[in-house]
Queue: 2 jobs
Job 1
Amino acid sequence: MRVGVGYDSHRFEEGRRLILGGVHIPEHTGLTGHSDGDAVAHALIDALLGAVGAGDVGSYFPPSDHSWKDADSMDLLARAVNILESRNYQVVNVDVTVICESPKLAPHVEAMRRRLGDVLRVGAGAVSVKGKTNEGMGWIGRGEGIAVHAVALVEAIGGFDATWGATDEGLPL
Ligand code: MG
């Protein structure tokens, strides 16, 4: 088994749709971003790629590449799962903390868990999403944006760890 951690932050921007964990949250303005700005998806992508030492979201889906303009971040997350599987790993479980003063996450958590569970191919039971405020402190407290922390546990498919015994030079990732 291996573990990865991811973080992302985005600024709120008028006129954008708020998408978090693949779920549209209509009661609040959206987030800036080259893609749809789904910071939950982006933090999870970094956690998955980090778990197998495969770089980060920017190395696969750079903002300089117009293919990813307004991209559906659930599609990017699905691609990250494919990268994971191409390295012989699958997701065990993920845990996500979303930090913002508003909107309230609770009414959307179950929909996010189901959507993420589908894309990660684990089911909602292996996906945790938690909302917190920043107690009014700093840029999050002023409602300027959102921050997301994610952790992902992955396991070798079929119990075979492709990295076992590999040297730094020969890491087959
Ligand atoms: Mg991002």
Job 2
Amino acid sequence: MDRFLIEGGVPLNGEIQTSGAKNAALPALAACLLTPEPVTLHRIPRVKDIATMTSLLRAVGAKVDMDGGTVRVEAKEFVKTEAPYELVKTMRASSLVLGPMAARCGTARVSMPGGCAIGARPINLHILGLEQLGAQIAQTHGYIEASAPDGLRGATVHFDRITVTGTEDLMMAAVLARGETILQNAAREPEVTDLAHLLIRMGARIEGAGSSTIRIEGVESLHGAEHTIIPDRIEAGTFLIGGAITGGNLLVTQCNPEHLGALIAKLKLCGVAVSEEASNAVRVKAGVALRACDMITEEYPGFPTDLQAQYMALMTQADGISMVTETIFENRFMHAPELMRMGASIRIEGRQAIVAGPRELTGAQVMSSDLRASASLVLAALVAKGQTTVDRVYHMDRGYERIEQKLAGAGARVTRV
Ligand code: EPU
């Protein structure tokens, strides 16, 4: 099992390039199942979750060709319409194929995801939505079976709570449904908008993506298209926090500063000098000492839960007490005890973590519990005294492309063993 050895104490300087967004690439790949024609996607990050999704596409019969960051998918016909437990258990986003297969094939069988390190994460809202579009749903043997032999029909779906992949799944189902679908209380994340842009290129009729009401007029069929995935705002945000925590001077390139609004505002409040150097590049520069600032996670455009763990690492180095509140997932503080093993002072009370800083961190052997928790530990290690061993970096490999090389390019002493 791979681990990272990190020698702390070196500021991140220079430039780091952002990759394509994993969480935009996953639904885009699932969307390829909506048409028999080839779809070409550029800027697909080479991370484990993408490999899992391409395995799933191949398993249902799609032809997938990869050339660097470009992936071409042709789903001419299906050999089956099932997402098996083996794949879903390693990646919950596998449930994104439910909507497209139900819409195009009239049948889809997807394993129920089961528990997850960061929370229960049910997919009941995907299922309820599909039912409203006319699918018959059965749950047996740990699987959800959706069937709509005569096709789906448009409907108004009001999400009880905001769900990113739920919105994406339903949007993909609705593009081939008869008539109009209105998705209310939809997620406004940039990844949802990016998916809508791809679907529109494929011939779908969608209005309002990026707002909380999305209108979709179903069409008979979709056609092939070519699309470039948006930059990964969470990866870019991780690097910005990395620049800030190490007291460096780092330019994060190939990103979209508009998607990073909540983080940039927060970093400025913490005393970090942040400047947009171009329409696609942001610089962080350590200035005055870091100040503690409270943070609460929210759906976009609020502060992303996917940057909460990294922000907590930053707060261990800030002067004062900060309250970090997680509102999206019920168990997303698994990094806190590991940060404490490195010397951080953190108290957890329900959905709140109270961080007292600054505390000197010292290198230790720590263990990743999920993707973003591992990013938090790597950031803490970059500023810790001595050597940190981060175990189970396979979590990191699910969503960060060549992270150790990117960090090393900015001066970090990171090796994979
Ligand atoms: N929820 C339900 N029922 C549902 C769906 C969601 O109760 O049917 C709840 C969840 O349990 C959670 C909340 O609603 O408490 C929001 O979950 P959401 O559905 O928005 O999360 P997701 O779509 O499963 C995506 C990202 C996550 C990211 C969240 C929140 C992808 C592939 N995953 O997950 O990314 O944390 O949105 O922004 O887009 C990551 O990249 O590390 C990651 C976990």
